[in-house]
Specification:
FAD/NAD(P)-binding domain; six-stranded antiparallel beta barrel; five-stranded parallel β-sheet; 13 helices; 22 strands; 31% helix; binds flavin-adenine dinucleotide
Length: 414
């Protein structure tokens, strides 16, 4: 039977940091990865550019984390944004700081981050075994005694006293993160907080979104209303899809929407197509355009205000004759146009699934993990890091930093 000091389940962001740190401490480390190569999810982060981390200070950083970022204080104190940047720069990956405190590799290639971490891990002696899926964590009821895995259809056992579960969440299962860690943890007695896909596209009641499928609106403002109360506003880009809404603004609003859907609340997204102009200024602009282009067909006049794909939808909602000349637009119609441009209402009736969610909310209960070590309070010698924990965060590099920090701390603690 094979024997090692530490087994790490999963070669993602947290697994690689856990492996590097524990091998630096002279432990014999074996990483088991079920996919054919490590870091599959890392490769697609930040649209292939990898938003490595965020420059926010710890006190601000933790406000971006749910359900309670305070759990991360010890992990962030031990290894934070400057540490991952230094580690990557040591490995030859230069970084750049962009809007919103977002760090990316200067090469804009997530693959460079994966390669650097792998190179570092191999330098410090970490062994990787790919195409190897962990089936079960073995314990004697109190402490870890090994893991059972399947490789080429054959079931094997490794003798070890330390296991770090870095198996990720359930989102984007094509990357290997299929939620195995939750089953592994539950089987040895851990509580799994209910799982939800978050940072996820939203489904609208209105089917006219499908007519605008593929349209990206830049620099719009969107407000999330739950039971008619504004709970969050975001500025940025929004995309229409055949089922409803996607894009950065929607992903950021989605967490609150997913939970409100769960509690059967009434949810609306109200889009402001012209956030730079208030109602009064927009009215002046529209009046001016109508006066200047009085003979222009309404359908053409709308091109001054909206992208082409949105025009038939607007004209349908407004019930304005697209063929009539602009000067025939009535004052009532004008008011209606302004209302639609400033306050375009969409009712949210659902969300997309884990396949399209950037992260998973829920997971291994934080009450059962020691935040100072990442060790299980249920089974000794068992550790957790990354998305398998009941932690998730907004977009902006926060999720990867959670994985790097908790991975490093778990690796340091074994
Ligand atoms: C499209 C997309 C873009 C993203 N962009 C960003 C971004 O730019 N910045 C950011 O901060 N966050 C981003 N995230 C989130 C971030 O990628 C994750 O939060 C982070 O990768 C979690 O790291 P992890 O180590 O916990 O899990 P993962 O990186 O998911 O790694 C888990 C690994 O465990 C392996 N595994 C699972 N089960 C088993 C098993 N039974 N046996 C062996 N191996 C197993 C998996 O194959 C996988 O390789 C993005 C997510 C997605 C889906």
């Amino acid at each position: 039977m094979m024997k090692t000091d530490v087994v790490i389940i999963g070669a993602g962001a947290s697994g690689m940091l856990a492996a590097i740190r524990s091998a630096e401490l002279d432990l014999k480390v074996l990483v088991l990865e079920k996919m054919s190569q490590p870091g599959r999810k890392l490769l697609i982060t930040g649209k292939g550019r990898c938003n490595i981390t965020n420059s926010a200070e710890i006190k601000d950083f933790i406000t971006q984390v749910y359900p309670d970022g305070r759990f991360l204080y010890p992990a962030f104190k031990a290894f934070f944004n400057d540490d991952i940047i230094s580690l990557l720069e040591e490995c030859g990956v230069e970084t750049i700081l962009e809007r919103g405190g977002r760090y990316f590799p200067k090469s804009e290639k997530a693959a460079d981050v994966v390669e650097a971490l792998l190179k570092k891990a191999k330098e410090v002696g970490v062994k990787f075994k790919c195409n190897t899926r962990v089936n079960e964590i073995l314990s004697d009821g109190k402490r870890i005694i090994g893991v059972e895995y399947v490789e080429n259809g054959k079931t094997e056992i490794i003798d070890t006293a330390k296991v770090i579960v870095c198996s990720g969440g359930k989102s984007y299962p094509g990357t290997g993160s299929t939620g195995d860690g939750y089953h592994l943890a539950a089987k040895v007695g851990h509580t799994i907080e209910k799982l939800f896909p978050v940072l996820v596209p939203l489904v609208t009641k209105e089917d006219y979104c499908s007519n605008m499928q593929g349209l990206t609106l830049k620099n719009i403002n969107a407000g999330l209303y739950i039971d008619d109360k504004l709970v969050k506003e975001e500025f940025g880009d929004l995309m229409f899809a055949h089922y409803g809404l996607s894009g950065p603004v929607i992903l950021t609003l989605s967490r609150d929407a997913v939970f409100a859907l769960e509690s059967k609340s009434k949810i609306k997204i109200i889009v402001d197509f012209k956030p730079a102009l208030d109602y009064e200024k927009l009215d002046i602009r529209i009046l001016r355009d109508i006066n200047e282009h009085g003979k222009m067909k309404v359908a053409n006049l709308f091109k001054l205000w909206l992208p082409q794909k949105a025009i038939p939808v607007f004209l349908d909602i407004l019930e304005i004759d697209a063929e009539k000349p602009a000067h025939q637009i009535s004052a009532d119609e004008r008011r209606h146009i302004i209302k639609c441009l400033k306050s375009f209402e969409l009712n949210i009736i659902g969300h997309r699934g884990f396949k399209e969610a950037v992260v998973t909310s829920g997971g291994v209960s934080l009450d059962e993990v020691n935040p100072k070590t990442m060790e299980s309070k249920v089974v000794s010698g068992l550790y957790f890091a990354g998305e398998v924990l009941n932690l998730d965060a907004n977009t902006g590099g926060y999720n990867l930093q959670i994985a790097f920090s908790t991975g490093w701390l778990a690796g340091n603690s074994v």
